[in-house]
Amino acid sequence: MLDRTDLLILEELSKNSRITMKELGKKVHLTGPATSARVEKLEENDVIQGYSIKVNQEKMGYSIHAFIQVFMKDINHQPYLSFLKNQKDFVMNNYIVSGESCYLLESKFPSNEKLDEFLEGLSKYVSYKLSIVINNK
Predict the structure, then answer these.
(1) pTM for this structure?
(2) Most buried residue among 25, 29, 66, 82 by CB atoms closer than 10 A?
(3) C-alpha gyration radius of the chain
(4) Is the dihedral angle over the CA atoms 104, 85, 134, 56 positive or is it negative?
């Protein structure tokens, strides 16, 4: 069971996972070593499963951010999943979802031409509904 201090640690690490244990300790009212021990325990218990960075996709040349609802044409999903493996540059996340669609595909593209090529290939395996992200607020 997580206590209030654990939750504060997680909140602060979510904002900045590169924070020093000393700085983190000040924010949660613990010493650096005590904070480090808490973080280590959270990692050992799989509450913290890893650290990551957030990349600005637009600065990486991917100005189009899209969500694609995927509707399977066939009960065999493998051809679709194999297609995605060959499209790693464009696929950010492929969520299995409940509701109307089978998957929610989060993707990024450097141009409308690349998006169009991707959708042409995708349509060989599935039906889809496309939504383009206008703003992330």
Answers:
(1) 0.74
(2) 25
(3) 20
(4) positive
Between the alpha carbon of residue 65 and those of residues 49, 135, 136, the distances in Å are 27, 9, 10
Tell me the three state secondary structure of residue 97: coil
In the structure encoding, which two tokens stand for residue 30, read together? Answer: 């613990």
What tokens were used for 92?
A: 């950010």
pLDDT in tens, 13-22: 999 999 999 9
What is the 8-class DSSP label of residue 30? S
Measured CA to CA in angstroms, residue 64 lies from 16, 69, 92 at distances of 26, 16, 12
* Residue 74: closest CA among 66, 83, 65: 83
Query: CA-to-CA distance for 39 and 8, rounded, in angstroms?
Result: 11
* Exposure of 85 in the CB half-sphere (CA atoms within 13 A): 6
